[in-house]
Design goal:
The structure holds two protein chains of two kinds.
Chain A lengths: L6 H9 L1 H38 L5 E9 H9 L3 E7 L1 E7 L5 E9 L11 E5 L9 E4 L1 H7 L6 E6 L2 E7 L1 E4 L20 E7 H7 L5 E9 L5 H12 L4 E6 L4 H42 L1 H10 L3 H42 L10 H27 L3 H5 L14 H6 L7 H12 L1 H39 L4 E9 L1 H8 L4 E16 L2 E10 L16 H6 L3 E4 H7 L6 E6 L2 E11 L6 E5 H6 L6 E8 L5 H10 L3 E6 H44 L1 H10 L3 H38 L12 H26 L4 H4 L5
Parallel strand pairs in A: 4-10, 6-8, 15-19, 16-18
Antiparallel strand pairs in A: 1-11, 1-12, 2-11, 3-4, 5-9, 6-10, 7-8, 13-20, 13-21, 14-15, 14-17, 14-20, 16-19, 17-18
Helix pairs in contact in A: 1-2, 2-7, 2-9, 2-10, 7-10, 7-20, 9-10, 13-22, 14-20, 14-22, 14-23, 20-23, 22-23
Chain B lengths: L2 H14 L5 E12 L2 E13 L4 E5 L6 H8 L7 E6 L2 E2 L5 H11 E4 L11 H10 L5 H14 L15 H13 L5 E5 L7 H18 L2 E6 L10 E6 L2 E7 L12
Parallel strand pairs in B: 3-8, 3-9, 6-7, 7-8
Antiparallel strand pairs in B: 1-2, 1-4, 4-5, 9-10
Helix pairs in contact in B: 4-5, 4-6, 5-6, 6-7
Classes of the chains: A alpha+beta, B alpha/beta.
C-alpha cells in the first residue's frame, strides 16, 4: 500500500510548526509536571524509607510515667521484640536571645553506643563519647536556624536550675524529619521549638530520674504480630503508669510526612490531568481545523483511491508525532526536574539520606498518557476526514458552519418584545456556529474559574480558619505546662504575675480513645467548666458548660470523624489512670485536631492526679506576653511556655509558602483562560476572515469589529462564569474537606469580594486575549479576504 | 447630524457629482510577489459618471478586480490619483477610507459574502445600521429593499436556506441599504446559472435606470457587455477600449 501521503505529515507539521510545536509543548508541560512530581515523590518516599531503615525507626513507643531501666531489659526479652530502648524525654525552656525562649525537647541517648532504636544521623561534629555528660546534639534544622556550631553552648531550664550544655555536633532524627512537636502542633518553626539529644544518664540526673526512663521505643521482628507485642509491652509496663502508646504511623513526624506525600501525590495527578485535558481540547481544535483546511486534499486522496483507513491513519499520525515529541520531551524534562525537586525538598526538610532511583513507571505512564491524549483528541477529526465523499470535498466549501432555517425558536421567544441589537444577536449566534468549540471554550473558561475559586478559596478559608482558631477558639495569650501537677497556690502565684489578667488551670495528658474497633491517640484537656479562655463551637445552641458539666467528653471534629462517633455515643478512654467509658457530650468545630475536652471534675473522676499541669493565661496587653513567658520560666516546675501569637506567626509563615503555591495556581489559571480564549477567538477570526472582511468592506469600522469580537469573547466568559463559580465552590468545599484529618479540621469559606475578583479576572483575561484577534481583523487585506472561500 | 439631513446631504453629493463621480488619472498598481513584480494596472485613466452602467471586460489577469478594489477603496494604487468629487481618496487615512466606503460605495461579490448567522433581513439591516441611526428607519429600509429585490417573503431566512440567486439578491439589497452612489459588482453572475444571472442583471439595470446609481460591473463574460451604457475592455492592466453604448440591451435579451 502506498504510504506516500504520510510523508505529508512531516511537511504539514513543518508548515504549521508553531501551532504543532505549541501543542507538543502543552502536552510536554503536563507530562513534565507528572513525571517530575511522581519521580520526585517516589524518591522522597524512598529517602524517608532509607532514613527510617538506617536509623531503626521505632515500630511503636510507649510513654510511661517512670519505669526502671530493668523493665526495658524485660521488654527486650519479649517475643517478636527485635530491639528496645529506654530513654528520658523531657520538655523545657531554652533561652536563645536576651528576651526569647524556645520550647526545648530533651531526648536521652546512650553515650557508649548508638541506640538500637530511633538512632540519629550525625550531620556535623561527632556523636557522644562514653561517660560524657553536659553535651548536646541539636537537630540540624534548629542549629542552622540559630547558627549554632560545635563548641557553642546552650542553656536549658531544669529542676536543678539553668544548665549549660556544649554542642558536639548536629544530627537528623527519624522522629523529626518534619519537626512536629505533637499532633496538635505539627509544624512549629525552630523559632519556638527545638529538639536536643542529651546523654541519657545526664538527663536522668538533671530531672531526678536516676535509673528511670519515661519512654520505651521498640522495634519488632514481624509487623504482623505488632499488635500482640504492643499488648505485651503495655502489660509489662502497666505498673509504671502507661500514658500513651504511639504506633509508627501515628508518630507526628511520620504521620505528617505521609499526609504531605499524599497531598503531593494528588497534586502530581490533578495538575497534569488538567493540563492534558486542555492539551486534548487544543489538539482537537487544531486537528479539526487542519482537516477542514485540507478538505479538497482529502477529496483528492479519496478520489485517487486512498481508502478510509489510510485517511484515518494519516491524521492519527499527526497525533502520534505530537504525542511522541510531547511525551519524550516531557519525560526527559520531568526526570531532570525531579532531581531538582527531590534535592530541594530534601534540603528544606533536611532529609539526611536522599534516594535518586531510576523509576520506570513514570516514564511508561508519561509516554502512554501523552500518546493517548493526542490520539483521543485526533480521533474525531480523523474519522470526520475519512467520511468525506471525494466530489463534495473537492468543491469549494461554503461559509463555515452555517445557521440553518429561520430565526432560532429560543431567540424568537426571548425576542417577543424588542429585539436585541444586531451586535448581540451576532455574538450569540456565533457561539452556536461551532457548538463543540464553543462548549470547549466555555468549559475551559469555567475550568479556569473553578481553579481560581479553588486557589483563592484556600487563601480565604485559611484566613478565616486562622482567625477562628486564634480568636474564637484559643482565647488565651500565653500557655504554660508543668512537669508535675500543681496546686492552687501555684495558680495564685501565676495569677499574681505582672501582666496576667486571668489564669485558668488545665490538665493535659495523652490518652487513647476507643470506639468499637476504632481507636485514636489524642491529648485530653481538662478545663474549668466555665472556661473563658477556650471557645467551643458545639452547634445546636448547646453551651460548653452544659456539655462539660454532665461528665461527658467534647471531641474535636477530626477525632469524632476518625472514631465515627457523635453526641450521645460512648467511648472508652485509656489514660495513665486506667480505662473508663465516657459519653460524647459535644463535637467542637475547631481547626486543631486530636483533642478531647473534659471538665476538671471529670478528670478527677477518671483517677488522674489532682491539681493542674498547665495554665492558660490572658494577659493585659500583647506587649506583656514576652514578660509573662519569661516570668513563667523563672517559676519552679515550668516545663514550657508558649505565646499564642508566635504559634499563629508560625502558621502564617507556613501559609506564605502555601500562598506562593496558590498564587502560582491562580497565575496558571489566568494564563490558561487567556490562552484558551485567544486560541478560540483566533481560530474563529481566521475561519470567518471573509465574513469579517465583508463587514469591513461594507463600511463597518475597526471599533465596531472590535466591539463584535469583544462581545463574543464576553459572551463566552459570561456563560462560563456562573457554572464555573458554582462548580468551583463545590470542588473547593470537597477538596478543603478532604484536607481535614485527625490533625486538623478545615472548612470552606470564601468572601463575596473574592467571588467578584474572580469574575473580574476572568473578564479581564478574556478581554486581553481577544486583543490579538481584533488586531488581526482590523489589519487584514480586505481585497484578498473577501475572496477567501474557506 | 440627523439621519434626514445626512441622507439629504448624500443626495446632494450625488447630484453635484452627477457629471463626474470617480476619476482615475494614470493609475498603476504593482504587486511584488517574491522577487517578481506584477503590474496589475498600468497607467489607467478612466472617469465614471452618475447613472452609468459600466461593464468592465477582460480575461483573467487583465486587472479587472484590481480596478474594482481601487475604486472601492479596498486597495491603494502604486501611482496615479483617484478622485471622488473633489477628494483624492488615495490620500485618505484608513479610517476615512472606511467612512468613504460606508457612505458612497456598495459592493456585490461573486460569492455573495452574506453573513451566515444573520437572516436576509438582518444582513440588509446590518448595512443600513451603518448609515441610519433610527431603528424604525433601518427596519423600513431593509423591508423596502427586500421587496424591491422580490424577497420580502424570505426575509427571515438564513442565507443557507436561500438559493444562490436569492442570496445574490439579498447581497444587492444589502449593497443598496446604505443608499450608495456607486455599486461595484465583481462577477455578480459568476456563481449563478443563466436564468438566475439574467434576473440579477435585470435588477442591477433597474437600479441604475430607476435610482440613478452608477454601477461598475466587472466580468469576463463578454455576453454581458451589451447590457452596459459603456463598455471598458482591459488587457494586461491597460485600457484596450472604452466605448459608449447608445442602445444597451435589456437583461432578458442577453444570452450566454
Amino acid at each position: 500500500m502506498n504510504r506516500k501521503i504520510h510523508l505529508l505529515v512531516l511537511r504539514d507539521i513543518m508548515a504549521r510548526r508553531f501551532q504543532f510545536g505549541a501543542l507538543a509543548i502543552i502536552i510536554a508541560l503536563g507530562i513534565t509536571i507528572f513525571a517530575s512530581m511522581t519521580v520526585a515523590f517516589l524518591n522522597i518516599g524512598r529517602s524517608y524509607d532509607r532514613t527510617y531503615e538506617a536509623t531503626h525507626f521505632a515500630d511503636f513507643s510507649v510513654k510511661v510515667k517512670e519505669a526502671p531501666e530493668s523493665a526495658v531489659d524485660e521488654v527486650r526479652q519479649l517475643t517478636n521484640v527485635k530491639a528496645a530502648e529506654g530513654r528520658v524525654v523531657m520538655d523545657t525552656g531554652l533561652p536563645v536571645d536576651e528576651d526569647r525562649l524556645v520550647q526545648a525537647r530533651l531526648i536521652g541517648l546512650p553515650t557508649d553506643r548508638h541506640p538500637a532504636v530511633n538512632d540519629v544521623i550525625v550531620e556535623s561534629g561527632r556523636y557522644f563519647q562514653p561517660d560524657e555528660s553536659n553535651k548536646v546534639l541539636p537537630l540540624e534544622k534548629f542549629a542552622d536556624f540559630y547558627d549554632y556550631e560545635s563548641g557553642d553552648t546552650l542553656q536549658v531550664f531544669t529542676p536543678r536550675g539553668l544548665q549549660t550544655l556544649t554542642i558536639v555536633g548536629t544530627v537528623a532524627s527519624p522522629e523529626y524529619l518534619l519537626m512536629a512537636e505533637s499532633k496538635q502542633d505539627l509544624l512549629p518553626s525552630p523559632r519556638r521549638f527545638g529538639v536536643f539529644f542529651v546523654p541519657n544518664g545526664y538527663l536522668q540526673e538533671l530531672f531526678g530520674m536516676e535509673g528511670q526512663v519515661n519512654e520505651v521505643t521498640v522495634l519488632v521482628e514481624s509487623q504482623g504480630q505488632r499488635e500482640d507485642t504492643i499488648a505485651a509491652v503495655s502489660q509489662l509496663l502497666e505498673p509504671y503508669g502507661v500514658q500513651q502508646t504511639v504506633r509508627q504511623e501515628d508518630q507526628p513526624s511520620k504521620a505528617a510526612t505521609e499526609l504531605d506525600l499524599e497531598g503531593a501525590r494528588d497534586f502530581a495527578i490533578l495538575l497534569p490531568a488538567l493540563v492534558l485535558v486542555i492539551a486534548a481540547f487544543a489538539t482537537y481544535i487544531a486537528m479539526s481545523r487542519l482537516v477542514r483546511a485540507q478538505r479538497t486534499l482529502i477529496g483528492l486522496f479519496r478520489g485517487i483511491g486512498y481508502g478510509r483507513g489510510s485517511i484515518v491513519l494519516h491524521y492519527l499520525l499527526f497525533a502520534v508525532v505530537i504525542g511522541v515529541v510531547g511525551g519524550s520531551v516531557g519525560v526527559a524534562a520531568g526526570y531532570g526536574l525531579s532531581y531538582l525537586i527531590t534535592d530541594l525538598y530534601a534540603d528544606v526538610l533536611a532529609i539526611p539520606l536522599i534516594a535518586h532511583e531510576f523509576q520506570l513507571m513514570p516514564i511508561v505512564v508519561g509516554v502512554v498518557m501523552s500518546l493517548g491524549v493526542a490520539l483521543i483528541a485526533a480521533a474525531v477529526p480523523a474519522w470526520t476526514a475519512s467520511r468525506m465523499l471525494p466530489a463534495p470535498a473537492m468543491r469549494p466549501s461554503p461559509e463555515v458552519p452555517l445557521a440553518k432555517g429561520s430565526v432560532p425558536f429560543v431567540e424568537r421567544v426571548f425576542g417577543l418584545g424588542r429585539r436585541p441589537p444586531l451586535l448581540v444577536r451576532l455574538s450569540v449566534r456565533n457561539i452556536w456556529r461551532s457548538p463543540i468549540r464553543s462548549l470547549y471554550t466555555v468549559g475551559a473558561i469555567a475550568l479556569a474559574a473553578v481553579l481560581l475559586v479553588v486557589g483563592l478559596s484556600s487563601f480565604d478559608s485559611m484566613d478565616f480558619i486562622m482567625d477562628f482558631q486564634f480568636e474564637k477558639t484559643d482565647r488565651w495569650d500565653v500557655a504554660a505546662t508543668f512537669w508535675n501537677p500543681q496546686d492552687d497556690q501555684t495558680l495564685a502565684e501565676i495569677d499574681g504575675l505582672e501582666g496576667v489578667r486571668r489564669a485558668e488551670p488545665i490538665y493535659l495528658t495523652p490518652a487513647e480513645l476507643l470506639a468499637g474497633s476504632k481507636r485514636t491517640n489524642l491529648e485530653l484537656v481538662a478545663v474549668p467548666e466555665d472556661t473563658r479562655l477556650h471557645g467551643f463551637d458545639l452547634g445546636g445552641g448547646k453551651t460548653a458548660e452544659e456539655a462539660l458539666a454532665g461528665g461527658g467528653i467534647i471531641l474535636t471534629q477530626g477525632v469524632a470523624d476518625k472514631l465515627d462517633v457523635s453526641v450521645g455515643d460512648s467511648v472508652d478512654i485509656a489514660t495513665e489512670a486506667g480505662t473508663t467509658s465516657l459519653a460524647v457530650s459535644g463535637v467542637s468545630k475547631e481547626f486543631a485536631g486530636g483533642l478531647g475536652y473534659v471538665s476538671l471534675a471529670t478528670k478527677d473522676d477518671l483517677g488522674l492526679p489532682n491539681g493542674f499541669n498547665a495554665v492558660w493565661l490572658e494577659t493585659t496587653s500583647p506587649s506583656a506576653n514576652t514578660e509573662v513567658q519569661a516570668a513563667l520560666y523563672s517559676l519552679t516546675g515550668v516545663q514550657g511556655a508558649q505565646i499564642k501569637e508566635e504559634i499563629r506567626d508560625d502558621w502564617m509563615e507556613m501559609m506564605a509558602l502555601f500562598n506562593v503555591m496558590a498564587a502560582f495556581i491562580v497565575a496558571f489559571c489566568m494564563i490558561m483562560a487567556g490562552a484558551i480564549v485567544f486560541n478560540t477567538m483566533t481560530v474563529n477570526v481566521l475561519e470567518r476572515e471573509r465574513e469579517t472582511a465583508t463587514m469591513r468592506t461594507l463600511g463597518a469600522g475597526g471599533p465596531l469589529v472590535a466591539l463584535m469580537l469583544t462581545a463574543e469573547g464576553l459572551t463566552f466568559s459570561l456563560l462560563a462564569i456562573l457554572p464555573g463559580l458554582a462548580l468551583g465552590t463545590i470542588a473547593s468545599s470537597y477538596l478543603i474537606q478532604t484536607w481535614s484529618s485527625e490533625f486538623f479540621t478545615m472548612w470552606f469559606h470564601m468572601r463575596t469580594v473574592t467571588y467578584a475578583m474572580i469574575v473580574a479576572v476572568i473578564i479581564v483575561a478574556t478581554l486581553v486575549s481577544t486583543i490579538p484577534s481584533i488586531w488581526h481583523a482590523n489589519r487584514m487585506d480586505l481585497a484578498e479576504a473577501t475572496k477567501v472561500l474557506a | 447630524m440627523t439621519d434626514k439631513t445626512r441622507a439629504a446631504q448624500k443626495r446632494g453629493t450625488v447630484e453635484s457629482a452627477a457629471s463626474l463621480l470617480l476619476d482615475l488619472r494614470s493609475v498603476s498598481r504593482v504587486y511584488e510577489i517574491g522577487r517578481v513584480q506584477v503590474r496589475a494596472l498600468d497607467g489607467v485613466s478612466l472617469a465614471f459618471r452618475g447613472g452609468e452602467l459600466v461593464v468592465v471586460l477582460g480575461p483573467s489577469g487583465s486587472g479587472k478586480t484590481t480596478l474594482l478594489n481601487l475604486l472601492g477603496g479596498l486597495d491603494r494604487p502604486t501611482a496615479g490619483a483617484i478622485r471622488y468629487g473633489g477628494t483624492d481618496i488615495v490620500a485618505l487615512s484608513d479610517g476615512d477610507l472606511g467612512r468613504f466606503r460606508r457612505d458612497h460605495i456598495g459592493f456585490v461579490f461573486q460569492f455573495f459574502n452574506l453573513i451566515p448567522t444573520l437572516t436576509a433581513r438582518e444582513n440588509v439591516e446590518f448595512a443600513a445600521e451603518l448609515v441610519f441611526r433610527d431603528s424604525r428607519q433601518v427596519e423600513d429600509r431593509a423591508l423596502e429593499l427586500l421587496t424591491l429585490v422580490g424577497l420580502e417573503e424570505r426575509a427571515d431566512n438564513f442565507p443557507s436556506g436561500l438559493s444562490g440567486g436569492e442570496q445574490q439578491r439579498v447581497a444587492i439589497a444589502r449593497a443598496m441599504a446604505k443608499d450608495p452612489d456607486i455599486l461595484l459588482c465583481d462577477e455578480p453572475t459568476g456563481n449563478l446559472d443563466f436564468r438566475t444571472g439574467q434576473q440579477i442583471l435585470a435588477l442591477l439595470q433597474k437600479l441604475t435606470g430607476e435610482q440613478g446609481k452608477t454601477c461598475v460591473l466587472v466580468t469576463h463574460n463578454t455576453a454581458i457587455a451589451g447590457l452596459g451604457t459603456r463598455v471598458v475592455r482591459l488587457r494586461d492592466g491597460r485600457v484596450q477600449s472604452d466605448e459608449a453604448n447608445a442602445s444597451p440591451l435589456a437583461a432578458s435579451e442577453i444570452e450566454w
